[in-house]
């Protein structure tokens, strides 16, 4: 394997490791990902000087990549990481009892004019999360691999997600209370994710990617359809959607079925335009059959458990419509915590309270009658990613994060590959996870964060350009 191609497989292996090992949420297990990210960054920086490919005048390479020194994502991401490093360096605030105010407070940071955080050991976790994400996206954007290698990279991510979903189904079917049959937990989990909503978001994203690869394989005119690959990708997509349902996340169930409906509609509309009449009938029958398999797989394994998640408490009656009395769509206490987070941000508008700082100040923004909520698992987070990042990083840090994402988003939205099913379905998955982040915390899980950003970064390069005709082979 050439120097230009093996880094993309190191990136794939890194994401595989993170998603399979606790979803990346256990800091003690993130060291291999950090080392791999460091190696990938070094390769990205030195590769242009090895003469692998000569850049064009505007910095773009013949393989579709962009040289790092002309990549705004490189600079914005580096500045954002520098900001997080300053928060970590300036961390170390101590809790004390203020006799004058008769309440507990935290001491000011060592340098009050600089960004800061409360606990240094927790603030460093932000670097552990975002540095690999930056290095992985740079690797995908850099001209280290051609379109075929990137297509294989995304296929690998989809297949590994299908295997992880299958592993989760086995755990679910056996009814084990232990993750990996080794670590006992007292809460719901699925596969390698200790939080069911994380599992749901990941499998919805990977299900969308699998559908995109599947539809690209079906709607290509230049070579016969590879039936084995079609069957494998279809099985992968169905496993991912089944996993999203059996994670027992209410939002995951809704998003999975929304994706299934969109995929069915997309394949029927696209197939009606591109396929001959006989193939249209076969496609319609296959679509109905796939939806049926998906439905019966979910119903057979988790019907009772899923119904339980959507059954509201007897005292929780809808004030909107009696039709909603039998459906639990409650967002819990998210609204109270969101209002508290907004108030916290207003008191710390520019620098925020630092990584993981929200949980140290939240009690000051809730009435004492609601303090018992803080003892419940999970409420160290706002359960709204954009708001939590705004609170912890402030306007400056959050702005730097958005500035880093802007080049990736612009490249994905305004590329010339929008007729490619892989582009349409992957973008649908990215959007669904983005919407999910407004009521939960998928981007505070490294496994989801890394998969999401590499799919976003890969879309402009791996898609089939519109001017190349209707879906030519990615080879």
What does this structure look like?
- The protein is an all-alpha fold and 475 residues long.
- It has one domain (6-320, 379-468).
- The chain is 59% helix and 3% strand.
- It has helices spanning 6-20, 31-46, 72-89, 120-141, 147-174, 196-218, 227-246, 250-274, 277-310, 334-347, 358-361, 385-413, 421-436, 446-462, and strands at 95-98, 103-106, 178-179, 183-184.
- It has a two-stranded antiparallel ribbon. Strands 3-4 form a two-stranded antiparallel ribbon.
- Strand 3 and strand 4 (183-184) form a beta hairpin.
- Helix 8 (250-274) packs antiparallel against helix 13 and helix 10 (334-347) crosses helix 12 (385-413).
- The longest helix has 34 residues, at 277-310.
- The relative contact order is 0.14.
- The model is unreliable at 52-63, 317-325 and 467-475 (pLDDT under 50).
Give the DSSP E fraction (strand runs of 2 or more residues).
Answer: under 5%
* SS content category: mainly alpha
The description of the largest β-sheet is: 2 strands, antiparallel
Number of helices: 14
Side by side, the strands of the main sheet go 1-2
| The number of domains | 1
* Percent in helix: 55-70%
End-to-end gap: 17 Å
Order of SSEs: HHHEEHHEEHHHHHHHHH
Average pLDDT metric? 85
Please provide the count of β strands.
4
Main traits of this protein?
single chain, 475 residues, mainly alpha, two-stranded antiparallel sheet, globular, disordered C terminus
Quick structural gist:
The protein has 475 residues and is an all-alpha fold. It has helices at residues 6-20, 31-46, 72-89, 120-141, 147-174, 196-218, 227-246, 250-274, 277-310, 334-347, 358-361, 385-413, 421-436, 446-462; strands at 95-98, 103-106, 178-179, 183-184.
């Amino acid at each position: 394997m050439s120097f230009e191609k093996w880094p993309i497989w190191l990136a794939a292996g890194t994401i595989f490791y993170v998603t399979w090992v606790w979803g990346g949420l256990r800091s003690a297990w993130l060291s291999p990902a950090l080392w791999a990210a460091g190696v990938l960054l070094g390769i990205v920086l030195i590769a242009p000087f090895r003469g692998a490919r000569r850049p064009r005048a505007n910095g773009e390479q013949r393989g579709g990549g962009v040289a790092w020194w002309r990549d705004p994502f490189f600079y914005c991401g580096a500045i954002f990481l520098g900001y997080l490093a300053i928060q970590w360096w300036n961390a170390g605030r101590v809790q004390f009892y203020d006799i004058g105010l008769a309440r507990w407070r935290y001491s000011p940071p060592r340098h009050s004019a600089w960004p800061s955080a409360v606990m240094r050991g927790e603030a460093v976790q932000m670097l552990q999360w975002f540095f690999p994400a930056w290095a992985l996206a740079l690797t995908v954007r850099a001209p280290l691999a051609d379109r075929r290698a990137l297509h294989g990279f995304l296929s690998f991510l989809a297949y590994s997600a299908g295997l992880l979903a299958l592993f989760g189904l086995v755990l679910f079917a056996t009814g084990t209370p232990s993750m990996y049959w080794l670590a006992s937990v007292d809460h719901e989990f699925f596969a390698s994710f200790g939080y069911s909503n994380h599992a749901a978001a990941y499998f919805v994203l990977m299900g969308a990617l699998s559908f995109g690869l599947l539809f690209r394989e079906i709607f290509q005119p230049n070579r016969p359809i590879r039936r084995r690959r079609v069957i494998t990708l279809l099985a992968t997509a169905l496993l991912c959607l089944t996993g999203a349902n059996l994670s027992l996340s209410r939002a995951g169930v809704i998003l999975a079925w929304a994706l299934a409906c969109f995929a069915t509609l997309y394949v029927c509309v696209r197939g009606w335009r591109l396929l001959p009449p006989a193939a249209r009938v076969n496609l319609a029958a296959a679509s109905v059959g796939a939806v049926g398999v998906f439905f019966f797989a979910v119903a057979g394994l988790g019907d009772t458990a899923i119904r339980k998640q959507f059954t509201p408490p007897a005292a929780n009656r809808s004030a909107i419509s009696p039709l909603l009395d039998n459906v639990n769509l409650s967002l819990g206490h998210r609204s109270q915590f969101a209002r508290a987070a907004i108030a916290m941000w207003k008191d710390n508008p520019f620098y925020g309270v630092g990584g993981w700082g929200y949980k140290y100040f939240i009690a000051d923004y809730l009435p004492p009658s609601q303090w018992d909520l803080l003892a419940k698992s999970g409420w160290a987070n706002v359960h709204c990613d954009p708001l939590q990042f705004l609170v912890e990083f402030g306007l400056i840090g959050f702005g730097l994060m958005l500035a880093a994402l802007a080049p990736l988003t612009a490249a994905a939205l305004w590329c010339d590959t929008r007729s490619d099913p892989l582009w349409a379905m992957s973008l649908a998955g990215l959007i669904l996870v983005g919407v999910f982040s407004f009521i939960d915390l998928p981007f505070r899980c490294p496994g989801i964060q890394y998969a999401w950003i590499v799919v976003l970064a890969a879309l402009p390069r791996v898609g089939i350009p519109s001017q190349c005709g209707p879906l030519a082979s990615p080879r």
